[in-house]
Structure formats: C-alpha cells, structure tokens
Amino acid sequence: MHDASSMPTAQDVLDFWFLPPGDPAHGTQRDVWFRKDAAFDAQVAARFGAAIGQALSGGLREWDALGAQGALARILVLDQFTRNARRDTPGAFAGDALALAAAQQLVAGGAHLGLIPVQRLFAYLPFEHAENAAMQAESVALFTALAQRHPGFDGVLDYAHRHRGVIARFGRFPHRNAILGRSSTAEEALYLEQPGSGF
Predict the structure, then answer these.
(1) Which residues span the domain enclosing 72?
(2) How many domains does the chain have?
(3) Of 52, 175, 192, 196, which is the most exposed, with the fewest CB atoms less than 10 Å away?
(4) Are 42 and 103 in a shared domain?
(5) Model pLDDT for residues 165-184, shown as the tens digit of each residue
(6) Largest Cα span, the chain
(7) Secondary element (H or E) of residue 127
(8) Cα 120 to Cα 133: distance, rounded to the nearest angstrom
C-alpha cells in the first residue's frame, strides 16, 4: 500500500522523463523513449506504478491546475508510462482515451505552445496513438507545425504520417490486435508480416 508521501509529483514525472533542468541532456530526444528496454520498463513500473493506477482511475487531475507542465505530466503517465510498465498487455493502451482528452484540452487552449519542443512531442502523441482518422489528421497537423519550427523532428513527423496511413487503411492499428484479443483480417495479417508494421 502506498501512502500519500510516496506518490510521485508532476515534477518527478517530468524530471524522470526529460531529465531535470540543468542536466546536459535536458530538452534533448532520448533513445530510451522509443526502444524496448526491460530495465527501463521495470524502472517506470517500480517508480510510477501507483501514479499509473491513480491516473487510470481518473485521478491526478489536480496536476492540470499546475498549467501545461502539470497537464503534460499526467499525459506522460497515461500515454507513455502505461506503454512501458504494461508493455505487451491490454494495459499498455488503457490510458489512451484519458490521455487524448487531456491532450485535446492542452492544444485547444494553446497552452501546448508554451512547452519546449521535445515536450510538445509528448503532448501530441495521444493524437497519433488514437485509432481515429480525425485525431490522426490533427496529429499530422501538430507534428508538421513542430517540424517546420524546430529542426530535428522530421523523423517524428514521418512516424505521424505512417500512423495516419495505417488508420486510413485499416481503421485501427493491426499490431495491437493480438494484445487486445482482436482477430486480424487477412489483409491485416499480410501487413503484419512486413518489417516495421508494429512501429
């Protein structure tokens, strides 16, 4: 049982993911974010398991009152930490709807523009993770604007285009089918045999 004092703060989440301000690597893109790393996944689960559980049950909304940084911290817990701590299980995607709602609110109010570029990347990923054509269009628009204003985000934009293409073709992400207990169509099965189909 976790007592309140052991619950991570929004700043704990931001410092863990982006490294603390003052760290030479703060504000840079980190390799560990987008590769499978069992040790890193275990670290996320150990440090933030309680926060993930609370966020998934609709909690941590008080972080949003801290402004864009606080909202981003809750998005990270729902959209990224779930994918690390609950990799290859349905729980990896359990926070997606809540993360998307938080991201939509952040973008609609314009507060996302106050985040540094690498933080904006994670404010936009819930749109890219949505199995929804309109959200995919929004994802590409947001990542296009980010890549146009800041160097080093062309690869991220390419991924946004690829995700949109998959949703345009299948209406869902076939690489989630097995994890979520969904049957793949013949066309999806063929697609899943291609390298890179699982992102």
Answers:
(1) 1-113
(2) 2
(3) 196
(4) yes
(5) 999 999 999 999 999 999 99
(6) 51
(7) helix 117-129
(8) 21
